[in-house]
Amino acid sequence: MPDPQLIQVNKYPNRRLYDQTRSRHITHDDLYDLVVAGHTVMVTESKTGTDITNLVLAQALIERSPRKFAAFPPELLHLMIRASEQMLRGMASGWFAQMIKGMGGMPGTAAGPATPSWTPPAGFGWPMPAAAPAAGAATDAVADLQARMEAMMREIANLKGPGLR
C-alpha cells in the first residue's frame, strides 16, 4: 500500500508541476506548503523520469526560506561546491542520517529531542582537490566549522512551528 503522506509530482520543462497523487497542477508554493504540512514529496522530471526531488526542494528552500541558509556556515557551502559528487554523497548520507535520527526523524513525523544527539563523522575535514591549507590552519578550520555546525543545530532545535520561514 502506498504511503498516504507521499505526494508524487512531475515537473515539466516549462516549470509546471503536476501532482500525480491528486491529479492536479500545483505551484511551487503549493509544493513547499505540502512539505511544511508534513507530506513527503517525490519529484520526477516528466521527460526522463529522473528523480529531481533534491533539486526542487533546494530551489524551494532558497526561494521561500532564504534565511534558513544563514544557518549554514560559508565554509560548509564551499566544501560542498569543491567536493566530488561521490565524496559529498558519502559524507552527507552518513552525517545527515545521524542528524535526522538524533532529532527523532523527519519533522512532522515524530517529536525529536530538544538537543540533537549527533556529532559530525570522523574525517569531516577531508582534503579537497583545491589548494589545501597548512596543517594547523586545516585543524583550526575544522574546529571552527564544527563549532558553527553545533551553533546551527542549536538554532534549528529552537525553531518551533511548521509556518516559520
Topology:
Blueprint: E1 6-11, E2 17-19, E3 24-26, H1 28-36, E4 40-45, H2 53-64, H3 74-82, H4 85-102, H5 135-158
Parallel strand pairs: 1-4
Antiparallel strand pairs: 1-2, 2-3
Description:
This protein has two domains: 6-64, MutS, DNA mismatch repair protein, domain I (3-Layer(aba) Sandwich); 68-158, no CATH class. It has five helices and four strands. It has helices at residues 28-36, 53-64, 74-82, 85-102, 135-158; strands at residues 6-11, 17-19, 24-26, 40-45. It has a four-stranded mixed sheet. A hairpin with a 5-residue loop joins strand 1 and strand 2 (17-19). Helix 1 (28-36) crosses helix 2. The longest helix has 24 residues, at 135-158. Mean pLDDT is 75; it is low at 108-133.
Q: What is the H/E string?
A: EEEHEHHHH
Helix/strand/pairing category:
alpha+beta
Question: What percentage of amino acids are in beta strands?
Answer: 5-15%
Strand order of the largest sheet: 3-2-1-4
Helix content: 40-55%
Nutshell version of this structure?
This protein has 165 residues and is α+β, with helices and mostly antiparallel strands. It folds into 2 domains: 6-64, MutS, DNA mismatch repair protein, domain I; 68-158, no CATH class. The protein is 44% helix and 11% strand.
Features:
four-stranded mixed beta sheet, single chain, globular, 165 residues, alpha+beta, MutS, DNA mismatch repair protein, domain I, 4 strands
